[in-house]
């Protein structure tokens, strides 16, 4: 080995050792707590500053100072974070998205705090703890990795640690002190962070922004190790370190030379991009915490105050006005986050990249240095740069289609870092690229006026995106992605639209920011800013344009008025606290003031942990007979497991031509004659069981269970309606066409076969029920029919059209609507808006369908304007049903529609469902409530272990199933 190769290998091992340390720390913290600690780099930076403070400023000897920093300070930071930030979040339910925002908050807080304490400038006198000799560092890393691996694998503590990560609540029930385990994980993680910072600081610039970013760039090492394997992390870190070092020898020629050289010198960033965008993702469970995206009510008069405050700087002069110029520009950048994160619910940590690209392109276009385009006047350059940057929104929009939560955070962070390193750090961007202001707007005051006009335009654009059909679809996607798809919202293309619109807005704001500064400054758009802006928008009310403007004013104002870092520190504190205050600071203040009032009766209706708990269906009343939990042997009926006559459906009684939804409404009400149409009838009588309403309560199950109870239930229902509606009126002829056909469906989860050759037919106007024990595969069947799960084999046909490979929203638009076992409503939208989403995106876009569905399900009146969050389960089931119906589906798939409803609500719902069938809708119902099945269904399919084992009329099949 030549001496150059040897030297470069040693240098690479040194860098790789530091990266390996980071990887070990991130993995241990993640395994102990489930948190990918975005603040890891910031802890490293704080420890490096602390050691420098002790040694350089206070003159302490090196080793005692190092011991204090690494053995006391670093673990203390870790334990404090666990105790005061992450443990309260874990107690509240351990929402991974909330912990992600909190860890970004800690990052921003520590960076801001360090800037406040030690100033923003870089230090080059960090003490050297060990010599540059990599062998020592390597030995430290290997010993640490081996030690940690041994502890995790072979000790009791290691077993406890794995148990806590798998299921914290279960581990606690098993007697494990989860807090102790988490605290140990945090302490060790922070220790490795401190060690990394102290080892790296002498060889890189020690500053509050640069060092944390450098450390976080190597997060790829942990991701490549799937956040599990320490040996893989160490090997990847050392390999990338050595390769990066060796590549510095290459000096490729040609136009791509500088880029290749940059790639070689930033191999960890390349690894980050590959790990975040190409490798299997980690932590995809959640999107944003509901608290971060809650609907934030605008305080009365707030807009007037905002307008006055934004006009105030016109009276300023000098540096005050010069500083104010940054506010509208930053406001526009933050509005982009309102669209992407606030409304669309997508984590975007890379928004600074789009702002920077906007500024860079504007500067290059205005200077005539943009390849292939002539020199443009400044305003035209700004407009063209917005158009050019908008499609680049796909860089983060594309990953967002298949990523959520942590995986999306990593992907957008990686794009931000990549653009910063590979575009902003190039010579063309760094070589003093000036940017003039448009002609006639050179002075600060004139330019500020121009900015206000552009801000106003951006506000109008944001408003257009947040209101109307698109706004409702975005909010639906944010609140419940699967529910939105089921309602017909084209989720993938909507995400792309949100990111493209967000990139355009960020580019506009970035260009304005550059013009305000009269230069393209890469530092103004570095990835740390991206984290800060994200945190600022999240804590000041992500779905609030006013919140974005307030955040812009706060960030610029605080940093100009006080020492740099105050704004970051404040935003960090708020982000850390966000999990404690559902709805953000305004809601926290409102709740606090309500608590102070002696007789407050208002119920907090913002979506949050408690609300989400309420959205979970309550257990179905146990008094009703239910499917036995264990599979019951049944005799397969003729044609079991196949569609078609004999197995597929049973005819209802004939003579039902006049039955309609309107009739059902009359049944639900007081038994008077139906009005002339669904509208009129539904307006007064509906599914809602109102006080004093005469509804047919199901009879208690007599010995014999469903078989005995069902006929009684039916006759009672029929008699209330004057004998009109019920099985006899809602009948379907044997000759009714097949609407939904399932053939030989097989579905797998990994190696487990959840569905095995399932086949059935659902006819127009027929109610088919699927029953079976828990785990039989009923929900899996629904997922395959609705398009959320791709079957391994088999076919799904909708009116003879093969829809097996179509996505969920396309199926909805073709006429399949579904409800979910776990409620899938959109908590931040009102009841009427929930239903409107279904009407706008469904098979038939019919504006009148909203009111009809609302009336039919008793959701009209004051209820329609209430946010869905906080409404009782029974009401929400009706909202979900109304939404499904509002799109005029041909087939309704209902997954346990009776779960969480009381007897009266179930009876009323049954009436409406029968009437829907009578009107020609095909219904496929998964239900455990055998009384309801007996009352409702024309044909029953029994599923066990992924197969249909019996099919036939309810009386016969339920006889076989037994009580
Ligand atoms: N995402 C998944 N990954 C792995 N296995 C799964 C997954 N979802 C479901 N299963 C398994 O597939 C089988 C069928 O589950 P499914 O939820 O379809 O049953 P089910 O009949 O709807 O049960 P329940 O009545 O409890 O809802 C079960 O054994 C379940 O454990």
UniProtKB/TrEMBL annotation:
The source organism is: Streptomyces gilvifuscus
Query: Region Disordered: what ranges?
Result: 595-726
What does the UniProt keyword field contain? ATP-binding, Cell membrane, Membrane, Nucleotide-binding, Transmembrane, Transmembrane helix, Transport
Q: Could you tell me what this protein is called?
A: Branched-chain amino acid ABC transporter permease/ATP-binding protein
Where would one find coiled-coil regions in this protein?
A: none
The record, for CDD domains, names: ABC_Mj1267_LivG_branched (cd03219), TM_PBP1_LivH_like (cd06582), TM_PBP1_LivM_like (cd06581)
Compositional bias of kind Gly residues: 638-649
**Compositionally biased spans, kind Low complexity:** 656-684, 696-706
Is Transport tagged as a keyword?
yes
The record describes its membrane topology as: Multi-pass membrane protein
Native organism taxonomy: Bacteria, Bacillati, Actinomycetota, Actinomycetes, Kitasatosporales
């Amino acid at each position: 080995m030549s001496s150059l190769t040897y030297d470069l290998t040693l240098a690479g091992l040194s860098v790789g050792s530091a990266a390996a340390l980071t990887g070990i720390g991130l993995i241990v913290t993640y395994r102990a707590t489930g948190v990918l600690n975005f603040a890891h780099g910031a802890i490293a930076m704080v420890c490096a500053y602390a050691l420098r403070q002790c040694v350089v400023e206070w003159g302490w000897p090196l080793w005692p100072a190092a011991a204090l920093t690494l053995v006391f300070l670093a673990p203390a930071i870790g334990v404090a974070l666990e105790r005061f930030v992450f443990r309260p979040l874990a107690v509240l339910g351990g929402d991974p998205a909330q912990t992600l925002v909190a860890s970004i908050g800690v990052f921003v807080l520590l960076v801001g705090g360090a800037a406040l304490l030690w100033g923003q400038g870089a230090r080059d006198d960090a003490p050297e703890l060990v010599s540059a000799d990599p062998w020592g560092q390597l030995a430290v890393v290997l010993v640490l990795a081996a030690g940690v691996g041994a502890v995790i694998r072979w000790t009791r503590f290691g077993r406890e640690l794995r148990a806590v990560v798998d299921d914290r609540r279960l581990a606690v029930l098993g007697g494990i002190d989860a807090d102790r385990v988490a605290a140990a994980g945090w302490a060790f993680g922070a220790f490795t962070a401190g060690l990394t910072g102290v080892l790296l600081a002498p060889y890189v610039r020690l500053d509050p922004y640069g060092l944390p970013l450098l450390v976080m760039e190597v997060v790829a090492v942990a991701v490549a190790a799937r956040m599990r394997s320490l040996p893989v992390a160490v090997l990847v870190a050392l390999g990338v370190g050595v390769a990066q070092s060796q590549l510095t020898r290459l000096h490729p020629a040609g136009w791509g030379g500088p880029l290749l050289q940059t790639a070689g010198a930033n191999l960890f960033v390349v690894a980050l991009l590959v790990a975040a965008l190409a490798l299997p993702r980690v932590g995809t469970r959640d999107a944003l915490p509901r608290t971060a995206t809650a609907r934030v009510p605008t305080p009365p008069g707030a807009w007037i105050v905002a307008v006055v405050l934004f006009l105030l700087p016109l009276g300023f002069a000098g540096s005050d006005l010069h500083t104010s110029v940054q506010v509208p520009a930053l406001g526009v950048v933050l509005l982009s986050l309102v669209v992407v994160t606030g409304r669309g619910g997508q984590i975007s940590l890379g928004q600074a990249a789009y702002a920077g690209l906007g500024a860079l392109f504007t500067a290059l276009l205005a200077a005539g240095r943009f390849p292939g385009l002539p020199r443009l006047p400044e305003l035209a350059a700004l407009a063209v740069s917005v158009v050019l940057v908008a499609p680049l929104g796909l860089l983060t929009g594309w990953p967002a289609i298949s990523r959520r939560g942590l995986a999306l955070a990593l992907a957008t962070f990686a794009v931000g870092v990549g653009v910063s390193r590979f575009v902003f750090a190039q010579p063309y961007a760094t070589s003093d690229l000036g940017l003039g202001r448009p002609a006639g707007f050179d002075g600060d005051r004139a330019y500020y006026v121009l900015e206000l006009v552009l801000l106003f335009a951006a506000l109008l654009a944001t408003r257009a995106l947040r209101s109307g059909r698109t706004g409702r679809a975005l909010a639906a996607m944010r609140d419940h992605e699967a529910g939105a798809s089921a309602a017909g919202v084209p989720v993938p293309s909507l995400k792309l639209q949100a990111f493209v619109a967000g990139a355009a807005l960020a580019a506009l704001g970035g260009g304005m920011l550059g013009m305000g500064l009269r230069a393209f400054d890469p530092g103004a758009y570095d990835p740390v800013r991206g984290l800060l802006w994200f945190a600022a928008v999240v804590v000041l009310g992500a779905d609030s344009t006013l919140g974005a403007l307030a955040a812009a004013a706060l960030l610029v104002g605080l940093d100009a008025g006080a020492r740099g870092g105050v704004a970051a520190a404040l935003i960090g504190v708020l982000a850390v606290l966000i999990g404690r205050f559902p709805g953000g600071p305004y809601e926290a203040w409102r709740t606090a003031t309500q608590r102070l009032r002696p007789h407050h009766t208002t119920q907090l209706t913002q979506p949050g942990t408690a609300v989400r708990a309420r959205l979970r269906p309550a257990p179905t009343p146990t008094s009703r007979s239910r499917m036995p939990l264990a599979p019951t042997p049944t005799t397969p009926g003729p044609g079991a497991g196949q569609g078609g006559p004999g197995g597929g459906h049973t005819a209802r009684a004939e003579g039902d031509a006049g039955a309609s939804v309107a009739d059902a409404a009359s049944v639900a009400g007081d038994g008077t004659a139906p009005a002339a149409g669904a509208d009129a009838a539904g307006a007064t009588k509906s599914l809602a069981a109102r006080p004093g309403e005469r509804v047919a309560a199901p009879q208690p199950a007599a010995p014999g269970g469903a078989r005995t109870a069902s006929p009684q239930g039916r006759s009672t229902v029929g008699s209330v309606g004057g004998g009109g509606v019920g099985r006899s009126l809602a009948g379907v002829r044997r000759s009714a066409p097949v609407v939904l056909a399932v053939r030989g469906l097989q579905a797998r989860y990994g190696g487990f076969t959840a569905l095995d050759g399932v086949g059935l037919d659902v006819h127009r106007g027929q109610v088919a029920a699927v029953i079976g024990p828990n785990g039989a595969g009923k929900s899996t069947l629904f997922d395959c029919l609705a398009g959320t799960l791709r079957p391994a084999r088999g076919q799904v046909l909708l009116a003879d059209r093969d829809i097996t490979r179509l996505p969920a929203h396309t199926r909805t638009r073709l006429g399949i609507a579904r409800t979910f076992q776990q409620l899938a409503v959109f908590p931040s939208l009102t009841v009427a808006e929930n239903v409107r989403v279904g009407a706008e995106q469904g098979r038939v876009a019919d504006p009148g369908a909203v009111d009809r569905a609302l009336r039919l399900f008793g959701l009209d009146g004051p209820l329609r304007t209430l946010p869905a969050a906080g409404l009782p389960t029974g009401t929400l089931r009706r909202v979900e049903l109304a939404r499904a119906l509002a799109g005029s589906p041909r087939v309704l798939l209902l997954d346990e529609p009776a779960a969480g409803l009381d007897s009266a609500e179930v009876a009323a719902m049954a009436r409406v469902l029968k009437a829907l069938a009578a009107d020609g809708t095909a219904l496929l119902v998964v239900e455990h409530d055998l009384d309801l099945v007996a009352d409702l269904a024309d044909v029953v399919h029994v599923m066990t272990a992924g197969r249909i084992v019996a099919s036939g009329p309810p009386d016969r099949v339920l006889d076989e199933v037994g009580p």
